[in-house]
Amino acid sequence: MMYGMFQKTSPRSGSCVLKNNDQSAQSVQPMIGIFDSGIGGLTVLKSLCSALPQHDFLYLADFGHAPYGNRTEDDIVQRSKTIVRWMETHGVSLVVAACHTSSSVLKAEHTTGIATPIVTMLQPTLDGILKHPHRKQWKNGIAILATALSIQKGTLAFALQSRGFDLPIYPVACPLLAGFIESCNDRGAIRYLQSHVFESFVRHPVDMLVYGCTHYPLIEPWLSEHDVPNILRMDPAEHVATAVVEVLSPSGPVARGNTPPRVCFYHTGTQQGPEQLAKHWPNLVTSTPTDLVLD
């Protein structure tokens, strides 16, 4: 089953689910699986650890198939299914597709035969925009920064419009930005944003900039050190955490005492995978990521 945009099942969250008939009970403290093409999903993992400290986590950085934004839809769908099935063998009770690109192409029929619930980035991002506390004061619209494939698909923009969002939506494809972030090239990232993104806001002011890739919130510390436009920016990660809390613990969080969450890290591809993960959040990546061949 997949929590995304298809069949309503939860009156509390308004989330939509791709559902099969397997309604087996979940464990009290289920392990949550999270995957992304690289380090971007760490932004989601951080929010999940904060919101659900009673759970354990399995994180897969799929460096060997990155970047997802440059792959075909079929490649991403097949890769996502392979990862979810691998995570099922490791005992996860829920999977978070912490990648907007994969979330934009996954559909109901793609989860046939998969019993594990899958929470994508789409519905939480919609919630963050449509339920924003300043939403009624907006006049200029929003900009969505995302990978080229996400922009090409237009899934988020279409979903917003179908829900009555009537302000301008400016999709901005940023095919190089995730690479700058992966390599910790802050100067390259800022130059790219200033020339490719921020200059356009002079002609088309926006009320909010939406990070449509989980890598992009990692630029926040860099932005504070440079002269960039003061635009409201939204990271959907906390809204993902809220959605997962409502799926796993509709009656409230389960107490775990003072034991911190345990996170198991895996990566594919590059030999620098562990270093790439650890240098962004050393306090989060406290165990050595395991190299994984997953084809």
Mean pLDDT: 82
In the CATH scheme, what's the topology name of the largest domain? Rossmann fold
Number of strands: 13
**Total individual domains:** 2
The strand line-up of the biggest sheet is 2-3-1-7-6-4-5-12-13
Q: How far is the N terminus from the C terminus?
A: 23 Å
What amount of the residues lies in strands? Answer: 15-25%
CATH C-level of the largest domain: Alpha Beta
CATH architecture of the largest domain: 3-Layer(aba) Sandwich
Q: Give me the number of helical elements.
A: 12
**What is the radius of gyration?**
18 Å
Largest sheet: 9 strands, mixed
Low-confidence stretches: 5-28
Residues in helices, as a percent range: 25-40%
Structural class: alpha/beta
